[in-house]
């Protein structure tokens, strides 16, 4: 039998795990929207800027195509 450990795609900080569901849901959505925004910025970067941060154009394109809840 094979065992696989997985971490949640959008893990919340431990301080939020004891909060009411609506608070956790809003935090999860904010985190997802922030990730989406960062990926949009990444997609808009010029190749020179990508090289400065050590990412190739192919990697940037692949990351930018991910959905907001994907890690």
From TrEMBL:
Residue ranges occupied by any YjiS-like domain in the UniProt entry: 26-60
Name of a matching Pfam family: YjiS-like
Domain of life: Bacteria
InterPro entries cross-referenced by the UniProt entry: YjiS-like (IPR009506)
Protein name (Swiss-Prot/TrEMBL): YjiS-like domain-containing protein
Organism of this sequence: Belnapia rosea
